[in-house]
Design brief:
This protein has 245 residues and is mostly helical. Helix content is 68%, strand content 0%.
């Protein structure tokens, strides 16, 4: 318990500090592989989707742990979830060197879905990681996590914008700089979102804006009342407003 508490405290402190190097991020995740609590590992490896890391030193270790652990954790729900995020992490690496390992599990009843998702992610993250982790665009006044989210939101790739919106939502990001860009991207896209991909992206932007502004941004009310847009977006905005009453 003391080890777990220390890890959580150190993570919170690290997350609040700006200016961490990529090397520090890589070493943090390598060290996390030694964490005994599977829930902590699952939570933190999920966050790799928005870190932009691709260093093979990290992902080689993840691959080793996956191959060492996958068989004996099949009947343990928490450890199986931990190993599932090892699969997803290899996809987040964007490195095709892990494709042979991932492909081994395409027909595996337990890990099939994680393997397929990771294989789908590989080419995306090969393009996305340099964008997410581009420190040349970082604002030194903001936390690293906020800067990474901004890099995603400002990209021209709508799928990467969606990842950024999800990270903003899941991390309860309330930095005004991030909330302002979320609102900007949503304002520019919600009226023209018609296909499933664009509607899903706009939907996550609505979620992120609602959470980041504590439901106070007037754009949410505007979307809820707009009868000309895709019904899923107006219904989502209405549901969020109702939940906050």
């Amino acid at each position: 318990m003391q080890r777990l508490a220390a890890l959580i405290v150190s993570f919170c402190v690290a997350g609040a500090a700006a200016g961490k190097t990529i090397e520090e991020d890589v070493q943090y995740y390598i060290g996390l592989l030694g964490e005994l609590n599977p829930r902590v590992q699952s939570t933190e490896f999920e966050a790799l989707s928005g870190m932009g890391l691709s260093d093979p030193r990290l992902f080689d270790e993840v691959e080793k742990r996956l191959l060492a652990d996958y068989e004996y954790v099949r009947d343990n729900r928490e450890d199986r979830a931990r190993v599932a995020w090892y699969f997803r992490a290899l996809g987040f690496s964007g490195d095709e060197k892990y494709l042979p390992t991932l492909s081994r599990f395409t027909e595996d009843k337990t890990y099939r879905n994680y393997s397929i998702a990771a294989q789908r992610d590989l080419p995306r993250y090969a393009k996305w990681n340099p964008v997410i982790s581009n420190r040349a665009s970082f604002d030194p006044k903001l936390r690293d996590d906020a800067n990474r989210i901004l890099n995603m939101l400002r990209s021209d790739d709508h799928q990467l914008q969606r990842v950024g919106a999800k990270r903003s939502f899941l991390t309860h990001e309330k930095d005004p700089a991030v909330v302002a860009v979320v609102a900007e991207k949503l304002r520019a896209s919600y009226q023209t979102a018609k296909d499933s991909e664009s509607v899903e992206t706009a939907g996550w932007l609505i979620n992120a804006l609602d959470r980041g502004s504590d439901g106070r941004d007037p754009l949410i009310r505007t979307i809820a009342a707009d009868k000309t847009i895709h019904y899923k977006l107006s219904e989502r905005a209405k549901a969020l407003l109702d939940r906050r009453r």
